[in-house]
Amino acid sequence: MKRRVLCLALVLILAVSAFGGCKKKSSNKFYIGAIGPLTEGAAQYGLAVKQGAQIAVDEINEAGGINGYKIEYKFEDDTADGEKAVNAYNTLKDWGMDVLMGTVTTGACLSVKDETNRDNIFQLTPSASAVDVIKYNNCFQVCFTDPNQGTASAKYISDNKLAKKVAVIYDSSEVYSSGIYEKFVAEAKNQGLDIVVAEAFTADSKTDFTVQLTKAKNAGADLVFLPIYYNEAALILKQADAMGYEPTFFGCDGLDGILTVKGFDAKLAEGVMLLTPFSADATDDLTKKFVKKYEEKYNETPSQFAADAYDAIYIIKAALEKADVKPGDDNKKICEAMEKAMTEIKVDGLTGQGMTWTASGEVNKTPVAVVIKDGKYELYK
């Protein structure tokens, strides 16, 4: 009998301890969770998103919040790994998350989307660009989809007569890269671009690109399109320099961050172009104000990922205000109201003026191209 009572007491102690370890959600705040890589290879993306969003959260809270309710903001690291992203999501769900701003990378976002859909959590990703990310009604994007990036890149290269012969080096094992590549090739044909080489690599073979570069050089490619992430791009630029190959390198948002790669000589990125909705040297008041705050707070120039995240928080604010929901409302009510609100709002942000969204989750805005000069991004003119 004593043993049974002792066991029961132990169970009760454990239950109380577990309850005490949980964060009690305040009904006077909107809980916005975020997920992205803060460590390992893609950390530059996640750190930029975390920091850009924090500036927006601070501004909104200082101005009185969302319909009078302050924001509680929490960011979880997923190292750009799908399984870890799901674990991070569950942590935020237990924390009391009302809305998810994330995830940052495409692969991780594809792993989380089923979870948010099942749990009726509204999800706005700043930078996961695959079409499948917005498969469900509850998920929207701040960034362009991969097809849009591929199509827009081919049109921009053609319209601005940047090349006569084009080579492509892409990651066939990465959804982001292969998705952009497919649409780029299709649109390049429509634009009359001559793709002389298209070379793939995989996650298991992304350290030596001399074969791909040699083929591009021998084929006379004067522009190499890189729909890849910045770490691999940095290696490509180093190896191209070593072999004396100097084409124009042109990429998409995945290249944003290349100037901050540890040990990379920024001089090798001189003249690199990328299609992006944001340029830190833009002269509008919103951009100047954001860049100043970001540089003062984090001692670096913000990338497109930081700008996307800043906009994401303000987009969430606009949708919550339009939806007219409160922190105490259940997830389903908040989610369904925000889904409808997203198709009705128009947002002027760092990454686009008059941004709107379709019911499918895609954003409507105009891309611009930037070029790296003297270690900085400048609008291409």
List keywords for this structure.
single chain, Rossmann fold, 5-stranded parallel beta sheet, globular, alpha/beta, disordered N terminus, 20% strand, 2 domains, 381 residues, 7-stranded mixed beta sheet
Overview of the molecule:
The chain has 2 domains: 29-144 and 285-295 and 304-366, Response regulator (Rossmann fold, 3-Layer(aba) Sandwich); 147-276, 3-Layer(aba) Sandwich (Rossmann fold). Strands 7-6-8-9-10-14-15 form a 7-stranded mixed β-sheet, with helices on both faces. Strands 2-1-3-4-5 form a 5-stranded parallel β-sheet, sandwiched between helices. It contains 11 helices and 15 strands. The longest helix is centred in the N-terminal third of the chain and has 20 residues, at 2-21. It has helices spanning 2-21, 43-62, 82-95, 106-119, 146-159, 175-191, 210-218, 230-242, 285-298, 304-323, 331-342; strands spanning 29-36, 70-77, 99-102, 122-125, 139-141, 165-171, 194-201, 223-226, 248-251, 273-276, 347-349, 352-357, 363-364, 368-373, 376-379. The chain is α/β, with parallel strands linked by helices. Residues 1-24 have low confidence and may be disordered.
